[in-house]
Amino acid sequence: MNNQYKQLTLKERYQIEGLNELGFSARVIATKMERSNKTIARELRRCLNSKYCAETAHTHATMIRTQARKFTKRRQELIDKVEGSLKLSFTPEQIAGRLAREIPTLKVCCNTVYSIVFAQGWRHQLARQGKRYKPRKDTMAGAHLIPNRVDIDQRPKEVEHLGSDENLIRLTRFPTALSWRHSPTR
């Protein structure tokens, strides 16, 4: 069906219970409710007794959901750590990395930190105030920032025999070893 996943509500569980008591299969119930038949079959197996009970299934599902790691991640301790790190101008990536090293029990990914930042309304404390990074559109993005820049095609013939990085490092350390003058051709 390719629908977006959402939890079954108590009302839907009552529908499943009623249709199941009438003898409908999981596939037929799923078609009537416009849900995946796998979801309905899993839901019918949820009750330990042979008879499906909507209230028992809903209580069980709610208990599992509230005990899940995803639900318990946003503890006050984590929110306080994120707030303190944001005041020190750390990015969410840096905060997640520091938490993983300093407090392994609070290990979270940067997306969790971002969700805390947005939920608490701290977007303005981020470096770009929560706006997406916009890459430069010009193909010569940083070229105009380097003064007297010369393209690699225009380098002097004397440099071509310096193939290794080691020789280039020597050249930059001791510029008198090989000197040439170049002027930008713009």
TrEMBL record:
Residues 5-46 form the Transposase IS30-like HTH domain. Pfam families: HTH_38. Coiled coil: none annotated. Gene3D superfamilies: Homeodomain-like. This is Helix-turn-helix domain-containing protein. It comes from Marinomonas primoryensis.
